[in-house]
């Protein structure tokens, strides 16, 4: 599984970011530009995933890692964000609400 740190995510440009946390978690604060597709309903929204390579984030990296493994098996070019939104916030990076 490919993975990046939040520092590498911050430097990444033009790559879609999918946040797989639940709607209430996402609403409480997320990485700017992230698209919310909760893990609990992702199977119903596979058509909403980008065709190009993309990153996946959650709160600490566990859910996103499981999603990345499942999506890689389906042929997606996807990368997990290690440490998730928790590390993003701890690093002092901006969040959207």
From TrEMBL:
It comes from Microbacterium fluvii. It comes from the Bacteria. Residues 11-97 form the Rhodanese domain. CDD domains: RHOD (cd00158). InterPro entries: GlpE_sulfurtransferase, Rhodanese-like_dom, Rhodanese-like_dom_sf, Thiosulphate_STrfase_CS. It holds the Pfam family Rhodanese. This is Rhodanese-like domain-containing protein. PROSITE patterns: RHODANESE_1, RHODANESE_3. PANTHER family: FAD-DEPENDENT OXIDOREDUCTASE, PYRIDINE NUCLEOTIDE-DISULPHIDE OXIDOREDUCTASE.
């Amino acid at each position: 599984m490919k993975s990046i740190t939040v520092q590498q995510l911050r430097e990444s440009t033009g790559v879609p970011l999918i946040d797989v946390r639940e709607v209430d978690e996402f609403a409480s604060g997320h990485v700017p530009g992230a698209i919310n597709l909760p893990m609990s309903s992702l199977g119903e929204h596979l058509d909403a995933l980008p065709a190009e390579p993309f990153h996946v984030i959650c709160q600490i990296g566990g859910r996103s890692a499981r999603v990345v493994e499942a999506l890689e098996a389906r042929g997606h070019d996807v990368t997990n964000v290690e440490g998730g939104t928790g590390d993003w916030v701890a690093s002092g990076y901006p969040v959207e609400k």
